[in-house]
Specification:
Helices cover about 35% and strands about 25% of the residues. The chain has about 140 residues and is α/β, with parallel strands linked by helices. The strands form two sheets. Strands 1-6-5 form a three-stranded parallel β-sheet. Strands 2-4-3 form a three-stranded mixed β-sheet, with helices on both faces. α1 crosses α2 and α3 runs parallel beside α4. It starts with a strand and ends with a strand.
Length: about 140
């Protein structure tokens, strides 16, 4: 299920935030850059995943920081307009499996993942999210 809120996912009231990033340990633009600035711990786990080579496209890393679970979903190999629907689908499936192990809540704040710098069309991405059992709150500026 999808619901929508105006504003930045950085100000999300939900306990869980998921966002897309590339597999190059950059988090240097868009929402990922904002997450890195607000939750530097998310960049730390991204860095660990990069050096451990566990940040494969379609996987994720996560951290608990200041009352929030932050999930870095690896939705593209390289920076730029390279987000991939298959990687988003795979990362969401992984999130769906992991979420019950970290919280009893089934609500996740998420931006229009893959649709900014990543270059995807929201109609395609939203169809993937709608198939999930997670209740996504889509933040849109």
């Amino acid at each position: 299920m999808l619901s929508y809120k105006k504003g930045s996912v950085i100000q999300a009231t939900e306990e869980v935030i998921a966002h897309g990033c590339n597999c190059q340990n950059v988090m240097g633009a868009g929402v990922a850059k904002a997450i890195r600035a607000e939750y530097p711990e998310a960049f730390t786990v991204d860095k660990r995943a990069y050096f451990a080579k566990t940040n494969e496209p379609g996987s994720f890393s996560f951290v608990y920081a200041r009352g929030k679970f932050i999930f870095n979903l690896y939705t593209q190999k390289q920076p730029g307009p390279n987000a991939n629907l298959h990687y988003i689908e795979k990362a969401i499936a992984g999130l769906e499996k992991k979420l019950p192990n970290v919280t009893k809540l089934n609500q996740v704040a998420i931006p229009r993942i893959g649709c900014g710098i990543g270059g995807l069309d929201w109609n395609d991405v939203s169809q993937i999210l709608e198939k999930s059992t997670i209740n996504f709150v889509v933040y849109d500026i």
